[in-house]
Amino acid sequence: MNWLLDLTPDEWNAVRLSVKVATVAMIASLPPGILIALVLARGQFWGKTLLNGLVHLPLILPPVVVGYLLLLSFGRRGPAGAFLAEHFGIVFSFRWTGAALACAVMGFPLMVRAIRLSIEAVDRRFEAAAGTLGANPLWVFGTITLPLILPGLITGAILSFAKAMGEFGATITFVSNIPNETQTLPSAVYTFTQVPGGDAEALRLTLISIVISMAALVASEVLARRVGKRMDIE
Questions:
Q1: Chain centre distance of CA 41
Q2: Where are the alpha helices (DSSP H) in 89-167?
Q3: For residues 216 and 139, is the Cβ–Cβ distance under 8 A?
Q4: Residues 126-137 as b or e (16 or more Cβ within 10 Å = b)
Q5: What is the pLDDT of residue 229?
Q6: 3-state class of 132 per DSSP?
Q7: Is the pTM for the entire model greater than 0.70?
Q8: Where in or outside the cell is it found (predicted)?
Q9: Where are the beta strands (DSSP E) in the chain?
């Protein structure tokens, strides 16, 4: 255990940055994730299949391709990147914020799918009953639908977090591998595998990454079950 936790300052920075990036990516993805999941679960409109395909595209595209598309779009010379940098001073390329954006994009399909399945499982008679009592749709969603989909929301959020912890291809393509700025756990593992004698450090960071990701998945399962049991009791 001491060997596992005896990290150098650079290794600790990689661990902290990975957790920070994954957390920011997860939180930033939640509002659009809920909205898109609701649209896909309840909406009937032309182009729904196309929207669903676009949402899930990062799952089937090579991560390097996703990173390159982000670089073209949100790089300093990209249309979105240039606009954000000029008008708001927001820069994504080669910054930790760019790593969070790449991780959010890669984890978004997992989040949306989990939330969508939860929304589709909701008995709409509860929502209809609230509507007949005069509640507006936003109030119905906040007081009826959202509590009912909470287990799926938790699962989707944690899956997104776990995916972000392991993201490598899109991140390194978009923001490179800069120590203390964009070097997350996967990037640090890659770096150590390229250095003679770095096998021990690579193995240590790999084990830490596995522990964090597994802990997140177990936590999501436990939380989802507890919330589900509490809802059944109520």
A1: 20
A2: 96-120, 124-132, 137-140, 146-148, 150-166
A3: no
A4: ebeebeeeebee
A5: 64
A6: helix
A7: yes
A8: Cell inner membrane; Cell membrane
A9: none
